[in-house]
C-alpha cells in the first residue's frame, strides 16, 4: 500500500495529477488537488513526475 500526499501550499490546482493518475486517486476541490482514493494507488509515480511544483509525494508503507 502507498501513502500519497499533496502539499497544499505548493499545489497550483491545475490538475496534472488528476489527468495522469490511472486509478483516479486525485480530485480538484476548492482549487487544490486532494487525495480521495489512496487505497487504489499503484505506486507508479506518474503524478510525481507530472506535478510542476513538486507537491506530491508517494511512499510505500
Ligand atoms: S503513484 Fe500512480 S497510481 Fe498512485 S496516485 Fe500517483 S499516478 Fe496515481
Return residue spans where pLDDT drops below 50 for at least 5 consecutive residues.
none
CATH architectural type: 2-Layer Sandwich
Give me the count of strands. 4
Number of domains: 1
- The strand line-up of the biggest sheet is 1-4
Largest sheet: 2 strands, antiparallel
Share in β-strands = 25-35%
> How would you sum up the global shape?
globular
User: What sequence of helices (H) and strands (E) makes up the elements?
Assistant: EHEEHE
CATH topology: Alpha-Beta Plaits
What is the distance, rounded to the nearest whole angstrom, between the alpha carbons of the first and last residues? 6 Å
Describe the structure.
This protein is α+β, with helices and mostly antiparallel strands and 61 residues long. It has helices spanning 16-20, 46-50, and strands at residues 2-6, 26-29, 32-35, 56-60. The strands form 2 sheets. The chain has a two-stranded antiparallel ribbon. A two-stranded antiparallel sheet has the order 2-3. Strand 2 and strand 3 form a beta hairpin. The mean pLDDT is 98. Iron/sulfur cluster (SF4) binds at residues 2, 4, 20-23, 25, 41-47, 58.
Amino acid at each position: 500500500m502507498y501513502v500519497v500526499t499533496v502539499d497544499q501550499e505548493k499545489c497550483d490546482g491545475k490538475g496534472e495529477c488528476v489527468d495522469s493518475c490511472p486509478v483516479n486517486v486525485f480530485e480538484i476541490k476548492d482549487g487544490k488537488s486532494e487525495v480521495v482514493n489512496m487505497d487504489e494507488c499503484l505506486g507508479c509515480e506518474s503524478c510525481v513526475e507530472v506535478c510542476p511544483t513538486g507537491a506530491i509525494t508517494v511512499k510505500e508503507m
